[in-house]
Amino acid sequence: MTFTTFMVANLGLIFTNRSWSRAEGESRGRNAALWWVTGGALVFLALVLYVPGLRELFRFAPLRARHPVLLRRGRPERVSGSSLQGEPAAKRRRCGHVIGVRTPWTARPGARGLAPGDEVRRPDSRVAWALVSAASVLACDGGSSDPPTADPASTGEWVQGPELVWLAGQNPVLPTGHPDPGVLRVEGAHGVTYHLTTTVDNAGDFPRFTSTDLIVWTEAGHGLFGRDDAPGGSLALDGAHYCSRWAPEIVQLGAASFMLSFTAQRFAAPQSPCPPYDEDSGVYLAWSASPASPFAPPDRPWEPSPAGADFETCPYRPVLPHSLAFAADDCQGIPCPLVMRLDSTVFHDPHTGRWWLAYSWYTNSPPKIAWELANHGQHVSLVELDPNDPSVVRCDLAVAQIHAGNPHDAETLARLAASCSGCEQMLSMTRGPLGEEMVRDGVSLGVVEAPSLFRRGEYVYLLLSGSNWDSPYYHVYWVAAKSVEALAYTDPGRLVGRLLIPSDGQAFGHGSAVLGPDGERWYFVHHRLARVPCEESGCDRDVWVSPIEFEDRGDGLGDVHIRPRWPAEDPSFIVAVPASGPGAPPHALAAEVGGD
């Protein structure tokens, strides 16, 4: 940032000094000196950007404008309530990128940006062109948060994608009382719609919110099950009764096929009030023809059903990963990774066509085997689902099972700490509400939870949250590999890094990775605990959106590493949406304007 300011300041001084020289007759020596200084600065910048060794040495991050630069000669302009007048939608090619001279920024309720009546003054055209040129050179480092569209034929050429509108968002996007958000992206004839649902504990049905841009969310009105319950009591669904209703997430199985997975304590009789949580929950699944329709409809009386292999057709169900029919603690005499407890997410790998279920599980308490003594707590595993019916685990004793998250793995912690400057800060998987080391049954207790998966290019990414949810150390880290199987925590070839690093007494975690409205950029929708310790404040959590930005770290792999974020330092974010066409929300269409 200091170097950029220095360079742009020199450019500005050149133009202003030229006018002073004409007016006051100053010598040309100062102009020549300034030109030499600026020229040397530009040459130095070019060397840093294009010579890999220097670029790695100075670690210049690609610079991106957080606000639109409106360039036009003439009088000051005022911003209307729905759009910003900008340059015509001309495109210029630089460094293999398609650079838009105009990127309108919508100013509207829910989006942070210029307000109606704000004055935008245009710089002189010569200064403007210098600034645009400098920004173009800086952008040539190829930051992946603003990537060009790749030719599907892999010819190495870049093709221009649809014009985008950059919308400014301000966190939180939903108020307190909405922890553990799960988000589904659905493409339809009228564009992209996001469906968000959250934990309710014992406070009713799962809510549903919708959005077209990840910024403005509207409550849909009725819950996912369309049922009522007594406040503080269990929710009755097809003969069973559910308490501690947590971490719901919807996945699309087909054109008119959607599945809800969620965590709950399941009982055979009504509970009023619901009992305290005792690590006795399970993962349960229900189906619907639409994300807006009731899940577990009356014509499917067996739902919600405990996750696992098919009850009726698979004789191996008890020895494959599954949830218990009713609430019961500990591992019931079988290996603990086989007992699905909470935080489920379903992932379809578009490269292989395979379906996976990720979930959290607990060790026995107290530990019953030596391994549990050294690895006590909450872990994350994955199991492959039946490709013909992703609502059940594959009925195969050799089904793929991956242990992906272990809170006590020293190698993972060491690699996370070394993954970036500052990544050693607030790093732990074993801290409690007061920041203390958690101990249970006389041994260290650790937590890894809340898996979320997505694929980008050659790599599958798994996001995980570490430490207790109400701890000041609660954070999000990522692992990546070219296959789901290679995500195992014991695989030395997987990539690791940190995504959300807590600070300022705020903690961040548990969410969903989701593709943005433009179909290229990724975002993480998660919750925040605003004050830790949180006993006095009530421990309510709100919903935040954090862009997932990728960077090249000079290891020959390309821009596959996720850049770490300290979200407490800046609650603002931007979302790219199509400016026209079926994928554009109405406010984005309104922002599209022509030139003079």
Summarize the structure.
With 596 residues, this protein is of the alpha+beta class.
Mean pLDDT: 80
The beta-strand count equals 33
Report the structural category: alpha+beta
**CATH class category of the largest domain:** Mainly Beta
CATH H-level superfamily title of the largest domain: Glycosyl hydrolase domain, family 43
> Helical content, roughly?
10-25%
Per the principal axes of the C-alpha atoms, what is the gross shape?
A: globular
Rg, please?
27 Å
How many distinct domains? 2
N→C terminal distance: 34 Å
Q: What are the low-pLDDT stretches, counting only 5+ consecutive residues below 50?
A: 1-28, 50-161, 588-596
* CATH architecture assignment name of the largest domain: 5 Propeller
The main β sheet shows up as: 9 strands, mixed
Q: Proportion of β residues?
A: 25-35%
CATH topology of the largest domain: Tachylectin-2, Chain A
Please count the helical segments: 7
Textual characterization of the structure:
The radius of gyration is 27 Å and the shape is globular. It has 596 residues and is α+β, with helices and mostly antiparallel strands. The strands form ten sheets. Strands 17, 18, 19, 20, 21, 24, 25, 26 and 27 form a nine-stranded mixed sheet that branches. Strands 12-13-14-15-16 form a five-stranded antiparallel sheet, with no helix packed on it. It has seven helices and 33 strands. Helices cover 15% and strands 31% of the residues. The protein folds into two domains: 2-167, no CATH class; 172-570, Tachylectin-2, Chain A. Keywords: Glycosidase, Hydrolase, Membrane, Transmembrane, Transmembrane helix. Residues 1-67 form the Cation-transporting P-type ATPase C-terminal domain. Belongs to the glycosyl hydrolase 43 family.
